[in-house]
Amino acid sequence: MPETPTPETDRxxxxxxxxxxxxxxxxxxxxxxxxxxxxxxxxxxxxxxxxILVKKSFLAPDRVxxxxxxxxxxxxxxxxxxKYEILQRLGEGGAGIVYRAYQTALGREVALKVLSRxxxxxxxxxxxxxxxxxxxxxxxxxxxxxxxDFGYADGYHYFAMELVEGESLLxxxxxxxxxxxxxxxxxxxxxVRALEHAQKFQIVHRDIKxxxxxxxxxxxxxxxxxxxxxPTLEGAGAADGAGRPMGTALYVAPExxxxxxxIDYRADIYSLGATxxxxxxxxxxxxxxxxxxxVRAHLSAPIPNPRxxxxxLSTGAAAVVGKMLAKDPGERYxxxxxxxxxxxxxxEGRPPVNTIMLGRRSVATAPFIDGPLExxxxxxxxxxxxxxxxxxxxxxxxVLSLGVVGAGAFVVLRKKPEPPPPPHPVxxxxxxxxxxxxxxxxxxxxxxxxxxxxxxxxxxEAGKAK
Length: 466
Hints:
- The protein is an alpha+beta fold.
- It folds into 4 domains: about 1-75; about 80-165, Phosphorylase Kinase, domain 1; about 165-355, Transferase(Phosphotransferase) domain 1 (Transferase(Phosphotransferase), domain 1, Orthogonal Bundle), CATH 1.10.510; about 385-465, Ubiquitin-like (UB roll), CATH 3.10.20.
- Helix content is about 40%, strand content about 15%.
- It has helices at about 5-20, 25-40, 50-55, 60-75, 115-120, 125-140, 170-175, 180-200, 255-260, 265-280, 290-300, 315-325, 335-345, 385-395, 440-465; strands at about 80, 85-90, 95-105, 110-115, 145-155, 155-160, 165-170, 205, 215, 220-225, 230, 355-360, 360, 395-400, 410-415, 425-430.
- The strands form 5 sheets. It has a 6-stranded antiparallel β-sheet.
- Helix 12 (about 315-325) packs antiparallel against helix 13 (about 335-345).
- It starts with 6 loop residues before the first helix and ends with a helix.
- Residues about 235-245, about 360-365 and about 370-440 have low confidence and may be disordered.
């Protein structure tokens, strides 16, 4: 495979040529160094030219250092791309490399993404690279990696963005196993607010996943990699130019897999739900031996209950995740504002107000399975419930009725074990009479919560009485 030109390979080639001119290495040695460096790059091994020279005993370590310093002076000091001085490689992807760079005019460090010359001639990659740059410089939000500049200089397409000192959410979850509920909900809430900002510009991200969320050392979450983002007004479907569904398989929404017309923000809600599931449990909602198995699970498998993998999770958190992961976009949160409100409620220890709670479960959790979804794995038998819990489960159904002018009530209905007369109300927790006189959102939410607490308490008392 021919070596892909990058700023680093350009600098290394200049270094090798200088060593050859000085007679410090032979032509055969230079060829061997190039071969080993190319092999290391193909295996994604971060091995420098200097290390190869030393390990092959072509040059002593101190002489390599002297040579680097002398050659840097000879070839014009540090490598530059336009107004940016390359300092260090930070990471590499399929389309290029991200460097730590220094913008001399403004005296600041940035992250500089450089498109591989191998990809310049491929329209799909160049279009995605330029789209990411344009979207990033348009959006200005604390929870989105800020785009600073993009252009073409010294033979490279580049895109400068703010330098985030920290790690990806994926690295954080791998290191910690799973996050606390409070921390996970907080990260998800920050991402919802980033998406709310993007929605103002009719932009859908389409690739929400832990790898694309960067965590600063202070705990701020920043959404990155806008290469798949598109304005919904373009009528963009769910597939890329090659007909492949967009988004990583572990987190992709069912409608993106099916390529069902225009993809909107509800696909981002699903992907964020899969990401939140992983934060809370340490694993994605679906897994499999192949991409096809994972995709089939997203399309038709029951939604796994996160409480089966993390028993200490609140029912409110599980309910929110369940609603985010609904197969049908029409059954998910219909606005980002509703999701924002429910995540904020759970974060503050209150029940979510946009998900109907049924006792200790939620309407959104109805399709939850009782164990992990692994290929060939057997679902564990449900643990036997206590008589009191069984009585409580059959004694009460809580229904949220939204009234006129913002009023509402939780109605608890009894269900008798023998052929009963028509169910009759055991208790009704109406809202405060004054609540229906205004339209204040805080008053409505407080009324709903108070009604829910009162109804659930009376349902439990009814269960004990039996």
